[in-house]
Amino acid sequence: MPDSSLPLHACHYTEEVFALLGKRWNGLLVDLLLERPPRFDEVTTAVPQLSRRGTHGTPDRAAGGPTRTARGRATAPVAVTYRKTQRGIDLRPALDALRVRAAAPTDSEGNPLPFSAAGHEAEAG
């Protein structure tokens, strides 16, 4: 049993993670980036509640580093694709654990199924 006479200390690492994931859309955006590098329009389609205006810069802020913007083709408007950084990749186990805790469909070993897999049909509608 832990010694209840010891003072409590907030972990600055936990604080850093929740400063990132605690913002309204950041956790969801990092989760999208873990699927594959999306284009700006794909992000706004996947998260329709996120306004187009509110999306500008959000994936870049979303990780204090887990995303990186790659401005690709010189089109009008410029094609913007987001990709994850190592910090974003490192969040995968935590996001998977949260998804399982939220009762997402899992495989026989308890790993969350990708959204495109069978078991997510109810969510797609």
From TrEMBL:
<protein>
    <submittedName>
        <fullName>Helix-turn-helix domain-containing protein</fullName>
    </submittedName>
</protein>
<dbReference type="InterPro" id="IPR036388">
    <property type="entry name" value="WH-like_DNA-bd_sf"/>
</dbReference>
<feature type="region of interest" description="Disordered">
    <location>
        <begin position="102"/>
        <end position="125"/>
    </location>
</feature>
<feature type="region of interest" description="Disordered">
    <location>
        <begin position="48"/>
        <end position="78"/>
    </location>
</feature>
<dbReference type="InterPro" id="IPR002577">
    <property type="entry name" value="HTH_HxlR"/>
</dbReference>
<feature type="domain" description="HTH hxlR-type">
    <location>
        <begin position="11"/>
        <end position="110"/>
    </location>
</feature>
